[in-house]
Specification:
Layout lengths: L6 E5 L11 H9 L7 E5 H7 L3 E3 L7 H10 L3 H9 L1 E8 L2 E6 L4 E3 L13 E3 L5 H16 L4 E10 L2 E12 L5 E2 L15 E2 L1 H10 L10 E5 L27
Parallel strand pairs: 2-8
Antiparallel strand pairs: 1-12, 2-12, 3-7, 4-5, 5-6, 8-9, 10-11
Helix pairs in contact: 1-5, 3-4
């Protein structure tokens, strides 16, 4: 692979994941040859399934605030209650949309709770308890099995405030520089860059989605060519990508 070239390939042949399955070992076995510098991008959904983050809505009892928001938004009260339980703050609730800040610090719709490809129509998937910790564990499992120094990204699909359509972003990562900070460097004309920070982990997540079909249940993708950002240590994780509240101009 030449310098600057990125290659992306889906990891196929992984069976349906259930609570307690050895996800890292299963990905390593199906991924084939992994080499130093590869980044394995893993769907949040299979991480949540392996970690037992499935909840039946019938087990959730809606309280007053949830029932009120459910009437306003036209959502199921049990689901709204679960969203609130997974949230630190409601950011916006209007036009049928419930935007919250999760307990992880992610700002997203419905606290990232998902019902697609769950199997049971009465069950939903919650985000992992600690996506960065999940990424660190999976990195160790996959890297040890493959004998390679890799990075791992846990990706989820987020909407965007200023553009139509969803894109995958990194909610967890390990062994990968999440932000390449160019501030203080010079551009091609010698002008100092004042604001440029490249979201490497998010871009890896988005690139991986290009070889996945939402209906094909491909839970992992290998992105090659990012070796200059793959690190020996696990690193600070995707938590560093989240914009601090004091810098958020829209809250």
């Amino acid at each position: 692979m030449s310098a600057g070239e990125v290659r992306i390939r889906p990891v196929t042949g992984i069976p349906e994941i259930g609570d307690g399955d050895p996800l890292g070992a299963m990905i390593a076995e199906s991924a084939g040859d992994l080499v130093d510098g590869d980044v394995v991008v893993i769907s949040q959904k299979v991480v949540s399934k392996a970690e037992g983050r499935t909840r039946r809505l019938s087990s959730v009892i809606p309280r007053g605030e949830a029932s009120k928001l459910a009437r306003i938004l036209g959502k199921e009260p049990n689901l709204v209650q679960l969203i609130l339980e997974e949230s630190a703050q409601v950011v916006r609730a209007e036009r049928g949309v419930l935007i919250v800040e999760t307990r992880h610090g992610l700002v997203c719709a419905n606290a990232g709770i998902d019902s697609s490809n769950v199997g049971d129509p009465q069950s939903v998937l919650l985000l992992p308890e600690d996506p960065d910790a999940s990424a660190r564990r999976l990195r160790a499992e996959i890297g040890d099995a493959a004998g390679a120094r890799i990075g791992v990204v846990i990706a989820d699909s987020f909407g965007r405030a200023w553009r139509i359509g969803q894109a995958e972003v990194a909610i967890g990562c390990a062994g990968l520089v999440p932000i390449d900070d160019w501030r203080g460097r010079e551009d091609a004309t010698g002008r100092e860059l004042m604001a440029t920070q490249i979201a490497i982990a998010d871009e890896a997540a988005a690139a991986a989605d290009l070889v996945r079909d939402k209906a094909a249940a491909v839970p992992a993708v290998v992105v090659g060519g990012l070796g200059r950002w793959v690190t020996e240590e696990d690193g600070p994780g995707a938590a560093t990508i989240r914009r601090p509240r004091e810098d958020d101009l829209f809250r």
